[in-house]
Amino acid sequence: MTEVDSSLTGRVVVVTGGTRGIGRATADLLASSGATVVVTGRDEGAAVKAAAEIAEAHAVPTMGTGFDVADFAAVSEAFKTIAKEQGRIDGLVANAGVLEDALVGMITPELVERMLSTNVAGTIATVQAAGRVMMRKRSGSIVVLASIVGEHGSAGQTAYAASKAAVATVARSAAKELGPRGIRVNAVAPGLIDTAMIAHLPQELIEDRVAHTSLRRLGTPADVAKAIRFLISDESAFITGQVLGVDGGLVL
Amino acid sequence: MTVTAVNDRLKNLFVEVLELPEDVDVESLKYRDISQWDSLGHMSLVAAIEDEFGVQLDTEQVIGMSSFKVALDMLKDMGVND
Q: Would you state the pLDDT for residue A252?
Protein backbone atom coordinates (compact mmCIF):
# COMPACT_ATOMS: atom_id res chain seq x y z
CA MET A 1 0.00 0.00 0.00
CA THR A 2 1.28 3.44 -0.82
CA GLU A 3 1.78 5.55 2.25
CA VAL A 4 -0.28 8.74 2.01
CA ASP A 5 1.39 11.88 3.31
CA SER A 6 -1.42 13.75 5.07
CA SER A 7 0.75 16.05 7.15
CA LEU A 8 -1.09 19.15 5.94
CA THR A 9 -4.65 17.86 6.10
CA GLY A 10 -7.02 20.58 7.19
CA ARG A 11 -4.48 23.36 6.71
CA VAL A 12 -5.36 26.28 4.45
CA VAL A 13 -2.34 27.49 2.47
CA VAL A 14 -2.33 30.46 0.06
CA VAL A 15 0.13 30.31 -2.85
CA THR A 16 0.56 33.59 -4.72
CA GLY A 17 1.65 33.28 -8.31
CA GLY A 18 0.41 29.72 -8.07
CA THR A 19 -0.67 29.24 -11.67
CA ARG A 20 2.67 28.17 -13.10
CA GLY A 21 6.34 27.41 -12.43
CA ILE A 22 7.49 27.03 -8.84
CA GLY A 23 4.15 28.32 -7.52
CA ARG A 24 2.12 25.73 -9.40
CA ALA A 25 4.48 22.89 -8.40
CA THR A 26 4.19 24.03 -4.78
CA ALA A 27 0.41 24.26 -4.91
CA ASP A 28 0.27 20.71 -6.32
CA LEU A 29 2.67 19.31 -3.72
CA LEU A 30 0.87 20.97 -0.81
CA ALA A 31 -2.45 19.63 -2.10
CA SER A 32 -0.94 16.15 -2.41
CA SER A 33 -0.15 16.44 1.32
CA GLY A 34 -3.78 17.21 2.10
CA ALA A 35 -3.74 21.00 2.29
CA THR A 36 -6.62 23.15 1.12
CA VAL A 37 -4.80 25.30 -1.41
CA VAL A 38 -5.76 28.83 -2.43
CA VAL A 39 -4.17 29.63 -5.77
CA THR A 40 -3.76 33.29 -6.65
CA GLY A 41 -2.50 35.00 -9.79
CA ARG A 42 -2.89 38.21 -11.71
CA ASP A 43 -5.08 36.32 -14.19
CA GLU A 44 -8.24 35.31 -12.31
CA GLY A 45 -9.24 32.79 -15.00
CA ALA A 46 -5.85 31.04 -14.82
CA ALA A 47 -6.02 30.94 -11.01
CA VAL A 48 -9.50 29.44 -11.00
CA LYS A 49 -8.47 26.91 -13.67
CA ALA A 50 -5.33 25.88 -11.76
CA ALA A 51 -7.34 25.52 -8.55
CA ALA A 52 -9.88 23.29 -10.30
CA GLU A 53 -7.13 21.10 -11.79
CA ILE A 54 -5.43 20.74 -8.40
CA ALA A 55 -8.73 19.87 -6.70
CA GLU A 56 -9.39 17.16 -9.26
CA ALA A 57 -5.87 15.74 -9.13
CA HIS A 58 -5.57 15.57 -5.34
CA ALA A 59 -9.18 15.39 -4.10
CA VAL A 60 -8.82 18.38 -1.76
CA PRO A 61 -10.83 21.61 -1.55
CA THR A 62 -9.21 24.49 -3.44
CA MET A 63 -9.97 28.07 -4.29
CA GLY A 64 -8.69 30.31 -7.07
CA THR A 65 -8.67 34.08 -7.00
CA GLY A 66 -7.18 36.86 -9.10
CA PHE A 67 -5.37 39.98 -7.92
CA ASP A 68 -2.09 41.83 -8.40
CA VAL A 69 0.18 41.54 -5.34
CA ALA A 70 1.56 45.00 -6.16
CA ASP A 71 -1.86 46.48 -5.34
CA PHE A 72 -1.96 46.77 -1.52
CA ALA A 73 -5.71 47.44 -1.42
CA ALA A 74 -6.47 44.48 -3.68
CA VAL A 75 -4.27 42.19 -1.54
CA SER A 76 -6.03 43.33 1.63
CA GLU A 77 -9.47 42.73 0.12
CA ALA A 78 -8.46 39.34 -1.30
CA PHE A 79 -7.16 38.07 2.04
CA LYS A 80 -10.31 39.26 3.79
CA THR A 81 -12.33 37.22 1.31
CA ILE A 82 -10.07 34.18 1.68
CA ALA A 83 -10.27 34.36 5.49
CA LYS A 84 -14.04 34.71 5.34
CA GLU A 85 -14.55 31.82 2.93
CA GLN A 86 -11.97 29.44 4.39
CA GLY A 87 -12.31 30.48 8.02
CA ARG A 88 -8.56 30.46 8.56
CA ILE A 89 -5.15 30.80 6.89
CA ASP A 90 -2.41 28.48 8.18
CA GLY A 91 0.22 29.01 5.53
CA LEU A 92 1.34 31.54 2.95
CA VAL A 93 3.75 30.95 0.08
CA ALA A 94 4.56 34.46 -1.18
CA ASN A 95 5.82 33.31 -4.53
CA ALA A 96 4.52 35.91 -6.98
CA GLY A 97 7.43 37.67 -8.64
CA VAL A 98 8.76 39.08 -11.88
CA LEU A 99 12.18 38.91 -13.50
CA GLU A 100 13.66 41.29 -16.06
CA ASP A 101 17.35 41.45 -16.87
CA ALA A 102 19.15 44.73 -17.55
CA LEU A 103 22.83 45.63 -17.58
CA VAL A 104 24.10 48.54 -15.51
CA GLY A 105 23.73 51.58 -17.75
CA MET A 106 20.51 50.23 -19.26
CA ILE A 107 18.34 50.05 -16.15
CA THR A 108 15.27 52.27 -16.47
CA PRO A 109 13.34 53.66 -13.52
CA GLU A 110 10.29 51.81 -14.82
CA LEU A 111 12.13 48.49 -14.66
CA VAL A 112 13.25 49.18 -11.10
CA GLU A 113 9.69 50.14 -10.19
CA ARG A 114 8.34 46.89 -11.65
CA MET A 115 10.87 44.77 -9.75
CA LEU A 116 10.28 46.56 -6.47
CA SER A 117 6.50 46.88 -6.66
CA THR A 118 5.85 43.21 -7.37
CA ASN A 119 8.78 41.45 -5.70
CA VAL A 120 9.23 43.63 -2.62
CA ALA A 121 6.01 45.60 -2.01
CA GLY A 122 3.96 42.61 -3.19
CA THR A 123 5.72 40.27 -0.77
CA ILE A 124 5.32 42.73 2.11
CA ALA A 125 1.63 43.24 1.29
CA THR A 126 0.87 39.52 1.29
CA VAL A 127 2.94 38.81 4.41
CA GLN A 128 1.09 41.60 6.19
CA ALA A 129 -2.37 40.51 5.05
CA ALA A 130 -1.79 36.83 5.87
CA GLY A 131 0.00 37.68 9.11
CA ARG A 132 -3.00 39.60 10.37
CA VAL A 133 -5.27 36.61 9.81
CA MET A 134 -2.74 34.21 11.39
CA MET A 135 -2.35 36.43 14.48
CA ARG A 136 -5.89 35.62 15.53
CA LYS A 137 -4.99 31.96 15.97
CA ARG A 138 -1.43 32.75 17.06
CA SER A 139 -0.02 30.23 14.60
CA GLY A 140 1.03 30.03 10.99
CA SER A 141 3.94 29.59 8.63
CA ILE A 142 5.01 31.95 5.87
CA VAL A 143 7.53 31.21 3.13
CA VAL A 144 8.76 33.94 0.80
CA LEU A 145 10.68 33.42 -2.41
CA ALA A 146 14.14 34.96 -2.35
CA SER A 147 16.86 33.94 -4.82
CA ILE A 148 20.48 32.90 -4.92
CA VAL A 149 21.16 36.09 -6.92
CA GLY A 150 19.82 38.14 -4.02
CA GLU A 151 22.37 36.50 -1.73
CA HIS A 152 25.40 36.60 -4.07
CA GLY A 153 24.63 39.03 -6.90
CA SER A 154 24.43 38.36 -10.61
CA ALA A 155 25.70 40.27 -13.64
CA GLY A 156 22.81 41.66 -15.68
CA GLN A 157 20.37 41.31 -12.80
CA THR A 158 21.20 44.24 -10.53
CA ALA A 159 17.59 45.39 -10.10
CA TYR A 160 16.16 41.88 -9.78
CA ALA A 161 18.91 40.78 -7.37
CA ALA A 162 18.34 43.87 -5.23
CA SER A 163 14.63 43.09 -5.03
CA LYS A 164 15.32 39.49 -4.01
CA ALA A 165 17.85 40.56 -1.38
CA ALA A 166 15.07 42.70 0.03
CA VAL A 167 12.71 39.72 0.07
CA ALA A 168 15.18 37.74 2.21
CA THR A 169 15.24 40.67 4.61
CA VAL A 170 11.46 40.68 4.74
CA ALA A 171 11.64 37.10 6.03
CA ARG A 172 14.30 37.89 8.64
CA SER A 173 12.48 40.97 9.94
CA ALA A 174 8.93 39.62 9.87
CA ALA A 175 10.18 36.47 11.65
CA LYS A 176 11.41 38.62 14.54
CA GLU A 177 8.13 40.52 14.76
CA LEU A 178 5.68 37.67 14.24
CA GLY A 179 7.57 34.99 16.19
CA PRO A 180 6.12 36.01 19.56
CA ARG A 181 2.69 35.53 17.95
CA GLY A 182 3.45 31.95 16.96
CA ILE A 183 4.04 32.72 13.29
CA ARG A 184 7.18 31.49 11.54
CA VAL A 185 8.62 33.28 8.49
CA ASN A 186 11.33 31.78 6.29
CA ALA A 187 12.63 32.24 2.76
CA VAL A 188 13.81 29.82 0.14
CA ALA A 189 16.50 31.01 -2.24
CA PRO A 190 16.35 28.93 -5.42
CA GLY A 191 19.32 28.58 -7.73
CA LEU A 192 18.78 28.12 -11.46
CA ILE A 193 15.41 26.42 -11.79
CA ASP A 194 14.02 25.06 -15.05
CA THR A 195 10.95 27.28 -15.52
CA ALA A 196 9.64 29.74 -18.10
CA MET A 197 11.46 32.47 -16.17
CA ILE A 198 14.84 31.28 -17.54
CA ALA A 199 13.63 30.46 -21.05
CA HIS A 200 15.18 33.69 -22.33
CA LEU A 201 18.69 32.79 -21.16
CA PRO A 202 21.27 31.71 -23.77
CA GLN A 203 21.98 27.95 -23.74
CA GLU A 204 25.70 28.60 -23.16
CA LEU A 205 24.92 30.54 -19.98
CA ILE A 206 22.69 27.76 -18.67
CA GLU A 207 25.40 25.18 -19.42
CA ASP A 208 27.98 27.35 -17.65
CA ARG A 209 25.74 27.66 -14.59
CA VAL A 210 25.12 23.90 -14.53
CA ALA A 211 28.90 23.37 -14.68
CA HIS A 212 29.19 25.58 -11.58
CA THR A 213 26.50 23.60 -9.76
CA SER A 214 27.80 20.85 -7.47
CA LEU A 215 24.96 18.53 -8.41
CA ARG A 216 25.54 19.26 -12.14
CA ARG A 217 21.94 19.85 -13.14
CA LEU A 218 19.26 22.52 -13.23
CA GLY A 219 16.82 22.54 -10.36
CA THR A 220 13.21 21.63 -10.96
CA PRO A 221 10.12 23.40 -9.60
CA ALA A 222 9.47 20.21 -7.58
CA ASP A 223 12.89 20.56 -5.88
CA VAL A 224 11.88 23.99 -4.59
CA ALA A 225 8.33 22.90 -3.77
CA LYS A 226 9.65 20.17 -1.43
CA ALA A 227 11.70 22.70 0.52
CA ILE A 228 8.67 24.98 0.76
CA ARG A 229 6.46 22.15 1.98
CA PHE A 230 9.01 21.40 4.69
CA LEU A 231 8.99 25.03 5.85
CA ILE A 232 5.17 25.28 5.74
CA SER A 233 4.71 22.05 7.69
CA ASP A 234 5.28 21.33 11.37
CA GLU A 235 8.42 19.41 10.36
CA SER A 236 10.16 22.80 10.63
CA ALA A 237 8.37 23.87 13.84
CA PHE A 238 11.50 25.44 15.40
CA ILE A 239 12.87 27.10 12.26
CA THR A 240 12.21 30.79 11.57
CA GLY A 241 14.02 33.75 10.03
CA GLN A 242 16.11 31.50 7.78
CA VAL A 243 16.98 31.72 4.11
CA LEU A 244 17.26 28.18 2.76
CA GLY A 245 19.26 27.80 -0.44
CA VAL A 246 17.73 25.33 -2.90
CA ASP A 247 20.45 25.57 -5.50
CA GLY A 248 22.25 22.24 -5.88
CA GLY A 249 25.42 23.91 -4.66
CA LEU A 250 25.52 26.56 -7.40
CA VAL A 251 28.35 29.06 -7.02
CA LEU A 252 27.82 32.37 -8.81
CA MET B 1 -26.98 45.02 22.39
CA THR B 2 -26.63 48.70 23.32
CA VAL B 3 -23.78 51.07 22.62
CA THR B 4 -22.94 50.88 26.32
CA ALA B 5 -22.62 47.13 25.98
CA VAL B 6 -20.19 47.61 23.11
CA ASN B 7 -18.31 50.13 25.25
CA ASP B 8 -18.03 47.61 28.09
CA ARG B 9 -16.99 44.76 25.83
CA LEU B 10 -14.31 46.96 24.27
CA LYS B 11 -13.10 48.05 27.70
CA ASN B 12 -12.84 44.47 28.87
CA LEU B 13 -10.94 43.62 25.69
CA PHE B 14 -8.41 46.41 26.31
CA VAL B 15 -7.93 45.30 29.92
CA GLU B 16 -7.50 41.66 28.93
CA VAL B 17 -5.27 42.08 25.85
CA LEU B 18 -3.04 44.85 27.25
CA GLU B 19 -3.06 43.26 30.73
CA LEU B 20 -4.02 46.57 32.35
CA PRO B 21 -4.23 47.13 36.10
CA GLU B 22 -7.78 47.71 37.33
CA ASP B 23 -7.21 51.38 38.19
CA VAL B 24 -6.37 52.41 34.62
CA ASP B 25 -8.87 54.81 33.03
CA VAL B 26 -9.41 52.79 29.87
CA GLU B 27 -11.82 55.21 28.23
CA SER B 28 -9.27 58.03 28.10
CA LEU B 29 -6.41 55.77 26.99
CA LYS B 30 -4.39 56.78 23.92
CA TYR B 31 -1.93 54.79 21.79
CA ARG B 32 1.53 54.71 23.40
CA ASP B 33 0.18 56.32 26.61
CA ILE B 34 1.33 53.22 28.45
CA SER B 35 4.10 50.73 27.72
CA GLN B 36 1.62 47.88 27.11
CA TRP B 37 -0.02 49.72 24.20
CA ASP B 38 3.01 49.71 21.92
CA SER B 39 2.98 48.62 18.28
CA LEU B 40 2.94 44.93 19.17
CA GLY B 41 0.17 45.45 21.70
CA HIS B 42 -1.69 47.41 19.04
CA MET B 43 -1.66 44.48 16.60
CA SER B 44 -2.86 42.16 19.37
CA LEU B 45 -5.69 44.59 20.08
CA VAL B 46 -6.64 44.68 16.40
CA ALA B 47 -6.76 40.88 16.21
CA ALA B 48 -8.82 40.70 19.42
CA ILE B 49 -11.27 43.38 18.22
CA GLU B 50 -11.71 41.60 14.90
CA ASP B 51 -12.46 38.34 16.71
CA GLU B 52 -14.73 39.80 19.38
CA PHE B 53 -16.86 41.95 17.09
CA GLY B 54 -16.68 39.90 13.89
CA VAL B 55 -15.23 42.75 11.84
CA GLN B 56 -12.19 43.15 9.62
CA LEU B 57 -10.29 46.41 9.87
CA ASP B 58 -8.64 48.12 6.90
CA THR B 59 -4.99 49.08 7.12
CA GLU B 60 -6.07 52.73 7.44
CA GLN B 61 -8.31 51.84 10.38
CA VAL B 62 -5.48 49.88 12.04
CA ILE B 63 -3.14 52.85 11.67
CA GLY B 64 -5.81 55.35 12.69
CA MET B 65 -6.91 53.58 15.89
CA SER B 66 -5.16 56.09 18.10
CA SER B 67 -7.28 55.88 21.25
CA PHE B 68 -9.99 53.88 22.98
CA LYS B 69 -12.52 56.47 21.88
CA VAL B 70 -11.43 56.25 18.23
CA ALA B 71 -11.74 52.45 18.42
CA LEU B 72 -15.25 52.74 19.88
CA ASP B 73 -16.35 55.28 17.25
CA MET B 74 -14.87 53.08 14.55
CA LEU B 75 -16.92 50.10 15.71
CA LYS B 76 -20.07 52.26 15.81
CA ASP B 77 -19.33 53.48 12.29
CA MET B 78 -19.04 49.84 11.21
CA GLY B 79 -22.54 49.17 12.53
CA VAL B 80 -21.55 47.40 15.75
CA ASN B 81 -24.11 49.21 17.88
CA ASP B 82 -27.14 47.06 18.52
A: 86
